[in-house]
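Example (one chain per record):
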Amino acid sequence: MRGVVFLCLLVAGVATGVLVSIRLFPGEEPPPAPAPPLPPAPAAAPVEEILRPYETVATLREDLRDALAGPKEAIAAEVVRVSGRLRGSARSVLVETAPREASPKVRALLVLAAGVHVPDERILLAFLDDREPVVRRAAALATARREGGDVAALVEGVGVPVGRELPPATSNALRQRLSREEDEGVRGTIGKALGG
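Predicted structure:
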């Protein structure tokens, strides 16, 4: 039995020695495998294709304000551009943005740009009672806008083609406004919108 214990101790000692020697004197490790090459980067697109202008109703309103401060011949094109961008948000512009706009000319351009997309809705017709004549003119013209119609001037040289056949409710709203309108310019614009 002593021999067996001695043999077990001897084997345990040798195993411990081997483990200590491996730990204290490690052998050389093989060099790491080279990293695989990275795939080629995609060709960079031109900056114009990547960047898109950041547009909100607020930035479009500022674009109209800037256009009024610039050359008069550029205003009409800017109104058309902004109107195209406001197509999906015309109602919210007429309910939230335009009534809060302090500048009558900017408010008028907002009413025109958004109003042409909802020409028979009450939210546009309400601007026929705006305190500023230029805004009332814009609302009247927005109700009657027709591509290819006779052009009626609005503000700062912006011409609006009119001649759309108006539904009875819109026509009645314009006639009611005409009966109590005191501003001669607004009366003339409403007359054109009514086909007169």
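Caption: The two ends are 129 Å apart (CA to CA).
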